[in-house]
Amino acid sequence: MRIDIISIFPEYFAPLDVSLIGKARERGILDIGVHQLRDWTHDVHRTVDDTPYGGGPGMVMKPEPWGEAVDAVRAAAPAPGEPRLIVPTPSGRPFTQALATELAAEPWLLFACGRYEGIDSRVMAEYGARLRVDEVSIGDYVLAGGEVAVLVIVEAVGRLLPGVLGNVCSVADDSFAPGAMSNLLEGPVYTKPPQWRGHEVPEILLSGHHGRIARWRRDEALRRTARNRPELVAGFDPADLDKRDRELLAELGFEV
Ligand code: 6GU
User: Which of 101, 73, 236 is nearest to 158 (CA)?
Assistant: First the structure.
C-alpha cells in the first residue's frame, strides 16, 4: 500500500518509523511519503491560512496550496490510478474498525491534514468530483489538527495489511473485528507469574479445560462490554447470543 500525507508539520510523523509500521515500511509492505504543504506556497511567508469569509474566530486553510499539493502528489502516482483522499476533521464520519478494514483494501491513500478551523471546503468539492473523498473523525473530541488522527488511522489500517502482524489470528480476535459479535469487547488477559503482589490469575485459565475457558472468557467479555459500553449491548444480534449469554446479560440488568 502507498500512503501520502500532506501537512504543515511533517515532524509529527516520526513515529511511523517505529515498531509495527516502521517494520512494515522496511519490508516494503507500506510505502509512506510525507509532504510539507508549505512547499506549494509562493509568498515569502509561505502562507497557508487566511481569515474566514463570513467572519468568526480562527483561520481557514487557503485552497491554492492544497490544490497544488494534491495535484503534485497525484502526478507522482506509484502506478496508474488515483488515491482515495482522507481528510481528518472532527466533523467527519466516524472512523471505525469497519472503515479501517475498507481502507486496508485500497492501494493508495492520501491524507490531507488540516489545522486551524479547517481547509477551505472548495478543496473537498474539487476533489470530490475526481477522487473518492472521505472526511473522517476519530472521536467526539477536538484535536488541534489532523496529524494525530492520521497517525491513529495509519496504525489501525497498517496492522491489517497482510504480513504486518506476526500472528494472523490476532486480528480476528480484536474487539470490533468484523463478524458475529463484532461489538463484544475483549476481556482481561493474564500471563506468568501465576501470583503477583497478592493477585492471582483466575484459576480457570490454569485448568486446561478449553471449553470452560472459552465460556469464562465470553462471560468476562460480556461483563466488560456491559460495564464500559452499555450502548453496544443494545446492538447485539439476538441470533448470536446463547442461553448462557442471555442469563448473564439478564443478571447484569440488560433485556435482550
Ligand atoms: Cl480527524 N481532527 C481533529 N482536528 N480533531 C478531531 C478529529 C480529527 N477527530 C476527532 N477530533
Answer: 101
Is 90 one of the catalytic residues?
yes
Q: How many angstroms is it from 92 CA to the middle of ligand 1? A: 8
Separation of 162 CA from ligand 1 center, angstroms? Answer: 28
Instruction: Give residue 166's pLDDT.
Output: 83
pTM, full prediction: 0.95
Is residue 62 a contact partner of residue 46, using CB atoms and an 8 Å limit?
no
The identity of residue 248, as a single letter, is L
A 10 A CB-CB count for 173 gives: 9
174 is catalytic: yes
In terms of DSSP bridges, do strands 49-50 and 60-61 run parallel, antiparallel, or are they unpaired?
Answer: antiparallel
SS3 185: coil
Asked if residues 138 and 175 have their Cβ atoms less than 8 Å apart, the reply is: no
Residue 92 backbone phi and psi in degrees, to 5: -85, 180
Backbone angles phi, psi at 29, to 5 degrees: -75, -35
pLDDT band at 78 (very low <50, low <70, confident <90, very high): confident
Model confidence band, residue 172 (pLDDT cutoffs 50, 70, 90): confident
Q: Look-up: residue for cell 493508495?
A: 108
